[in-house]
Amino acid sequence: MFIGEGPGKNEDLKGEPFVGAAGQLLNELLAHAGLYRAEVYIANVVKCRPPGNRDPEPIEIETCTPFLREQIRLIHPDVLVTLGNFATKFVLKTETGITRLHGRPQSAGRFTVLPIFHPAAAIYDRTKRDALFDDFGRLRELLAQARTDGADVARTDEAAQAAVVPATATAPPAEGPLATPPADSAHTSPDAQTRLF
């Protein structure tokens, strides 16, 4: 899952994220990470373009973030990639800028967060292009590790379930509003599972 600042003029007009030169560069970067555009979800801190393409104001961010939280909860990504300063500072609750944080995985709740320069930054400053490709290479490594970890967990769960042999028949568990929910994390509240910011 990628999180940017907000839609630009072209994105607002087309209703799609990352169109134009930044979108073309993003497609190259995704390919470098072994991904296709259709495999990723792109969200923004703010959901519409501020007038005059100015930086989002605190009230705009506060108004839009419940939608972002819900998107993260529904997508439940392996890695959150923050694109640029606004997304990185918001998700990580830091004042440290993207120049110092890019390419270095961070933690926010249960999520691995990888801050990366916004692709548009490389269009205006060609020196950032190599850093972007390096950071997307790091993303490829993080995703491979997440897939390996996920496969290990699945194998462990299957082995544990196969080892359980009931000693005697028991009554089925109670159902309905008075039933005691299982204690595993899959039945905790969505907020507890995705506590991020």
Any idea what the shape is?
A: globular
Helix and strand element order = EHHEHEHHEEHHH
Biggest sheet details: 5 strands, mixed
Let me know the average pLDDT: 81
Helix/strand-derived category reads: alpha/beta
**Backbone CA Rg:** 20 Å
Number of strands: 5
Helix content: 40-55%
Strand proportion: 5-15%
Question: Poorly predicted ranges (pLDDT <50, ≥5 residues)?
Answer: 162-195
Number of helices: 8
What is the straight-line distance between the termini? 16 Å
Sheet with most strands: strand arrangement: 2-1-3-5-4
Describe the structure.
With 197 residues, the chain is α/β, with parallel strands linked by helices. Helix content is 48%, strand content 10%. It has eight helices and five strands. The protein has helices at 9-14, 20-32, 58-75, 85-92, 98-101, 119-124, 128-163, 190-193; strands at 2-4, 42-44, 79-83, 106-108, 111-116. A five-stranded mixed sheet has the order 2-1-3-5-4, sandwiched between helices. A hairpin with a 2-residue loop joins strand 4 (106-108) and strand 5 (111-116). The longest helix is centred in the last third of the chain and has 36 residues, at 128-163. It is globular. Residues 162-195 have low confidence and may be disordered.
Question: What would the keywords be for this entry?
Answer:
197 residues; 48% helix; alpha/beta; 8 helices; 5-stranded mixed beta sheet; 5 strands; disordered C terminus
In short:
This protein has 197 residues and is an alpha/beta fold. The chain has helices at 9-14, 20-32, 58-75, 85-92, 98-101, 119-124, 128-163, 190-193; strands at 2-4, 42-44, 79-83, 106-108, 111-116.
